[in-house]
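Course assignment 3, question 2. Fill in each field.
Student: A.L.
Task: Predict the tertiary structure for the chain below.
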Amino acid sequence: METDFLVIGSGIAGLTYALKVAQHCPDKRVTIITKTVEDETNTKYAQGGVAVVNDLEHDSFKKHIEDTLIAGDGLCNKKIVEIVVREGPKRVQEIIDLGAQFDKDPGGDYSLGREGGHSENRVIHYKDVTGKEIERALLAAIHKQKNIELVTHCYVVDIITQHHLGYLVTKSTTDIECHGVYALNEHTNRIEKILSHITLLATGGNGQAYRTTTNPVIATGDGVAMVYRAKGRIENMEFIQFHPTALYRAGVRGQAFLISEAVRGDGAILRNSDREAFMEKYDERRDLAPRDVVARAIDSEMKRTGTEHVWLDCTEMDLVKFKHHFPNIYEKCKSIGVDIHKDWIPVAPAAHYSCGGIKTDEWGRSSIRRLYACGECASTGLHGANRLASNSLLEAMVFAHRSFEDSCKVILGDEAFKDIPDWNAEGTTEPKEMILITQSLKELQQVMSDYVGIVRSNVRLERAERRLDMLHEETESLYERTVLSPQLCQLRNLITVGYLIVKGASFRKESRGLHYNTSYPYKSKLMQNIIL
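Answer field:
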């Protein structure tokens, strides 16, 4: 396959970018590929909303910028923060113009929620399924665009660079260039090459590196791992955000149901097993402190009391308002026997968001030519050491637009496709035992959760690195000798992501934001972003 614009991923970042380039360049071909069904993305599971300044009477760009910088704990790129906050309202209006619905108050103004770390109410939302509503509106627009092809069940194995043409490519190579990707087409069960003048990675997060995560099973860090293998720059992978309040279910692992931070914004209170409202012991902002603070506080209370969860008390909240704002959460709790008007909700932290990723500039460009990255897989400089709640959807919209603007200029001078070789699967055989893959995945998730979680130490990180080295060696051997499957490729990518998280955490000789190391409990004034 040959195309002009290739988009990997069908969440808010990928769809926004694809729609814009297709409309701007009607004579160009735009191809979106996704490894499962078209709407199974991290975007779909985003509950809270979009943080955006649209009430200048009570809010301001300055306040939103300051809140973002404070949450980022000294590692945000201030220029990027200003770009996202100031350009955000235009990008949100565009998504509204496409048909995305957001809740309004009786007066017709947008209903604004408040979440941890925000100094004002500025989060617009659609009940507690904001991401799903945005995904719906974007897909509807995508299907109307004639020059867009959306290919499902197509798993990207690697991005194509000069390395595949026989050239030596290292971290020091200054002119690495992307020519497209090799992808496993599950419809044909063949690895095909998809050549493109411009490629955008919008591959989402990597929550599946952990035993419990709010991310769907597709969040396996594919984009980050592929860019690292291609010798591109990766940044700040140690900053993994754990959402403080995922619904706790005894014995359940994998994707956990998210209890939105907006519930605390509307008045819910965290309580420990002794029935105490404990957040005031940890931060003056109490239940509305930034996520890193709240997650560590919950972790501390669980360790102190020897319990596997804490409680979220919603019993004093207005039940009618709760059902209207959080219908999905209300029904989920009801389905497991929790009446939020009478019962407390059991919650515990779960891996939620990667603040680091593929290092990009202010136009979404990676360190590899003709390769852009956007959304959670990218490290734009907005989040620093900790993402401010509900800034992620805003960031995706802003950088999808900026990547669109820049890449449309680049493609004007596009070149003929080079003679790229087909994928070579010679000498490989069908895998005989899938347990080799499934068990290694469980081991990886166990190691990352136990040793590289909310609180770390040098000893834990050293142990994790040794375990990951062994898993890497075993998996690479399997990769070399067997026919590829999505399961094997995802395991390989998750091991790479785990390695990058551990390496970033080991290099950071301090505690900052989402990275808390008991061996270095204090911040350093000297340490900046860690690039791998």
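Instructor remarks: The chain has three domains: 2-238+355-413, 246-346, 435-517. The chain has a mean pLDDT of 93.
Grade: pending
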